[in-house]
Amino acid sequence: MKFPYSTVIVAGSGNGHFLALRRPEIQASVIGPAGKMGVTALVDTGSDQTIFPKSVADRLQIAVTQSEEFPAAAFTGERIELLSGEVELEVINDGRRLAWRTVVWFYDAPDTDKESVVFGHAGFLDYFTATFDGLNAILTLEPNAELPAVVEGG
Amino acid sequence: MIQRLKLSDCGPGTGIPLPAPIEYAGQWVAWNNERTEIVAHGKRLADVFDAAIASGHADAILQRVPQPGVTFIGTI
User: Which ipTM score applies to this complex?
Assistant: First the structure.
């Protein structure tokens, strides 16, 4: 499955051109008891966990519990309490669909500016061989034997 | 990776996703499923999701649009 990096405008540069930051963000869906939400998520090898804003759990009525693991630490060292819950994740690419049930984590962001979706190792990257092609801005994901597949089809 | 692009370089068939217009910086946007049009936007992810559904786009793709000139150095 090949995913072109997302495009984010960072500045204009004249003559109709703009400077764009290309990021390894992919389209995926998170599915809970109250529905399915499509999101663009940053695939982040530096994150131990897959993390959604808690507002996603609230909206999709996903049951969450206080994470029994150590609190997470952000890049700056700030400690963050996480909640955990079980969801179904789905990625669709070139007519191929992968979906699996997994535990993910939720962060109760103090303000909306801190809401983000990150696909880290637990819940996501552990189930794939990932190749980050920086030159061509393409992320290739191939599922490995650990993927707890619910459905795979076209 | 920083690239110098123009809008015609992006979109369906180009291999480069369309960027959200810069006026949505700091917000969540909901793209239609073809990623050709923004159908809702706002500050709160759940609100944008509901607005997309209300506009007939239950299969919208939500994306956070970062502030221009702000690079991302770590999670959360």
Answer: 0.85
